[in-house]
Amino acid sequence: MAISVNHQVQPEKWLIAPHVIRLETSIIREILKISSQPGVISFAGGLPAPELFPLEDLKRICGEVIEKYGPAGFQYALSRGVPVFVKLLAERATVSGCPTEPENVLVTAGAQQAIELVARAFIDPGDYVIVENPTYVGALQAFNYYQARYVPIEMDKEGMRVEQVETSIRKYNPKLIYTVSNFQNPTGITMSEERRQALVDVAVKYNIPLVDDNPYREIRFAGTPATQLKAIGGDAVIELHTFSKTVAPGLRIGWINGPKPILSQFEKVKQCTDLHTNSFSQYVIYEFVKQGLMDPQIEKIKANYLEKRNTMLHSLEKYFPAGVTWTNPEGGLFLWLELPKGISAKEMLPRAIERGVAYVYGSPFFAGGGGENTMRLGFSNPSVSDIVEGVKRLGTLLKEKV
Ligand SMILES: Cc1ncc(COP(=O)(O)O)c(C=O)c1O
């Protein structure tokens, strides 16, 4: 006879670690939940355009992977990644200007896991991390878990104000410098060439790892390509990559390109986390790249996002009141807006959702506080016609406020 003891169980009293209780759920994920109501046009996510997922190719390749690699696609695999895939990643990085060997590579479950591994490997409670202000909120969440403290560095249109970095290093002795150098999330800003060189110089001078979270580099639809920090800094730079923005985020494949001794440390950490990254997904992306599908895929994405960015810029000009400014990104997924001082983008969000449009307010991206009058608009996911309509709805609301 089964005995039910359920009435005695009180999981709410179990002793969850205090630093986990203190963690906040991702604000973006919360906003995504609210904004996925029917009728709401959402600029909130950093979601790729679903119409660009290469579904037919992926369908065919999934079958081919099963035929070609058999059980290997479903077996436990090496923590570093499936060797043929690792080799391919190293070759592609080398061709892109960053000499890389397979021993420099660790395949991860997206760039988010790569950030997490970096945080786990480097951060003890109370350690300082230099970040851009604002910066990617998912990185702050990962660093927060390990109880990092922040040295937020101001940004302007050339990216992080690198001249502030050296004094900050002297003062706080940080463990890491974290940057999103290309088409930054959330601002869409790309670091200038001079700043890149200066940032590498300062990282090398003080021997502090420079983490370049680089998910958007390939999605450049205007302007001239920037030199990669990794190409300038070599082993001074830990570069994080992902296939989420080029193939599909659901496959959860990213990778780290870093110095060999550090990669061995990451490998141990990776083993504690999940043993290894999904082998089937690695074979699928391997075949996708090998079959020459990657470059045409990126071209399709660039054309689509360029049109969407242009539509958003034109609509902002047309429907937004004076006093609001925005960035003009040459790639990536996001545009960043500053509203007149005194308007809180957070307070305005419920009203915007009532009017059928959603965005992410900017304050959570600021490790140093502030940014109440800022917001991020993602242009990759909505259709062109929804971009026009959504910006119109938001502009109408804003005109009532200014
Ligand atoms: C700067 C940055 N890093 C990392 C990620 C996470 O990407 P992934 O899907 O590869 O985990 C994102 C996703 O939006 C991002 O913008």
TrEMBL record:
It holds the Pfam family Aminotran_1_2. InterPro entries: Aminotransferase_I/II_large, Class-I_PLP-dep_aminotransf, PyrdxlP-dep_Trfase, PyrdxlP-dep_Trfase_major, PyrdxlP-dep_Trfase_small. Keywords: Aminotransferase, Pyridoxal phosphate, Transferase. Its cofactor is pyridoxal 5'-phosphate. GO terms for biological process: alpha-amino acid metabolic process. It comes from the Bacteria. Homodimer. This is Aminotransferase. It comes from candidate division GN15 bacterium.
